[in-house]
Queue: 2 jobs
Job 1
Amino acid sequence: KAGVTQTPRYLIKTRGQQVTLSCSPISGHRSVSWYQQTPGQGLQFLFEYFSETQRNKGNFPGRFSGRQFSNSRSEMNVSTLELGDSALYLCASSPDTQETQYFGPGTRLLVL
Amino acid sequence: GESVGLHLPTLSVQEGDNSIINCAYSNSASDYFIWYKQESGKGPQFIIDIRSNMDKRQGQRVTVLLNKTVKHLSLQIAATQPGDSAVYFCAEIPSSYKLIFGSGTRLLVRP
């Protein structure tokens, strides 16, 4: 099976812009989670989707949003970008909750 | 808040020696734990997992130990190789659907 794929791999934006990141889970996986990784804060949970429904959300402002499509592919959107949003954004998929999550390579976002 | 932490930020070992990476968790309700390995420029890679009804689980060259009494996890890597150099994270899954990650330990393997 192909692994989790994320696009784009690298992105440069300026403050105030918005960005959309895409994640395709492993075939058959219905749960998709998003994480932000920064040197200072480590890996932090953003949100989790299962069957197009957001089941859990981390402590991030409303500028961070996501959605999941019927084929389990997911997107996350960050509006009004800030310098502090520069990070590696990781997507992980699993068959369901309480099961091992498998990560994609991440999208590295740089906000200038 | 809930957290999973690591005792040592950096561990340096000689090639061929065994490595032990430790992790403390704070949520006693967590019943599933995972170790991940992250190499530079890559996403975390699953290594091994353990559920709370077990004390020990072995994989290929790796062993995870769980001590629920003191809420402690450890990852043992036998015969450490240069390819094992990476950052290792422990993670727990409490009743919610999210992974809670520790801060990570960097493993450096000396040739």
Job 2
Amino acid sequence: QVQVVQSGAEVKKPGASVKVSCKASGYTFTSYYMHWVRQAPGQGLEWMGIINPSDGTTTYAQNFQGRVTMTRVPSTSTVYLDLSSLRSEDTAVYYCVRGGFGRDYYYYGVDVWGQGTTVTVSS
Amino acid sequence: QTVVTQEPSLTVPPGGTVTLTCASSTGAVTSGYYPNWIQQKPGQAPRPLIYSTSNKHSWTPARFSGSLLGGKATLTLSGVQPEDEAEYYCLLYYGGTYVFGTGTKVTVL
């Protein structure tokens, strides 16, 4: 079945970086876009960005420009989220979410969500 | 900074009908924003319900429907069940980027 499985929880100090992985299975990895979304404790969902696993092109939300990097390794069907210069406000659950496919990927929205990775930033 | 606004909370009796709305600070929401609706229950990962305004995923119950009305995207729950109590988020596409709505807490009471 289609699934995306994320790496485990992380605890980081302010100023550090974190790298979260998301391994896809059950479908052709390079055909579907992948989003990253986060949710701070007790807060709503926040869209961080999107990557095209086929060619690695990315679009990031303005709030994260300069601090976020999304990459992919097609041979392992894995996408990565790198977030740098961490601060306490980055404490959140981070989700990878499968998007649509093809040129009109935006039509298909989002469907499969990872289980979430808790990132805690604390001194 | 684009803001997508939803009702903070709504209450509906079991078996009733409730409509949630999703408005954009940039103006009227049209089909070109490809609205998505996503349900989240406490302690669980979000679950998508609707994509591109009105299209249902294979797992979406028939009582959920999406549309556009009065410049907003809407999600209507008909014949509400106790298990529909949850937070609901809309997600809009802005030509390359996306923005989530502020979320609506639906209480079944």
